Amino acid sequence: TSATKGRPVRFDNGIFVYPAVTLGVGHNDNVAGTQVNKVSSSITTLRPEVVAELKRQGDRYTLSYAGNYGWYGSSSDDDFDYHEVMLSGDNYFTSRARLGWQAGYVKRSDPKGSNDAGAGKYPNEWHAPTLRVLGKYGAAGAMGRVELEGNWMQKRYLNNRTTTRAQDVDLTTLTGRFYYR
Hints:
- It is globular and about 60 Å long.
- The protein has one helix at 161-164; strands at 9-10, 15-28, 41-56, 59-72, 80-92, 97-110, 124-137, 144-157, 169-180.
- The chain is mostly beta strands.
């Protein structure tokens, strides 16, 4: 997990909460990213974020939510709402053995024309549960360290299924590393 930014709201039970919100106003001169029939529009975005963190006996646990909402003034079909929820942990078993892990859920959409699944009336929306585990063995300052990392994601499109079905993907990776000083 990564350290959070800003000043937290602290609770008596040891939980720190880091809230944030960003408001953006802008203009996009080609919302659909096309060569012809370009649509120009103002855009307003709202990005709420909240991170809750608990530290216990050297371990850290984090629950986070990040949203990204966008509204186009002249192209409401391209409005979006993205969500990302993550539960993460850093566990220290000994001075040599550590484990970092994360489980999450992501919901987003692809901009029109950004992939070969065709451009329907609405952007191609997708969601994906994710898992990540990183184990490390090796003391600070040791001659060597071993790491083993695993990642899993199952991306599924939610709309325009006649053209997006082939874009669904399952991703599993396993990586091993050895560091020698």
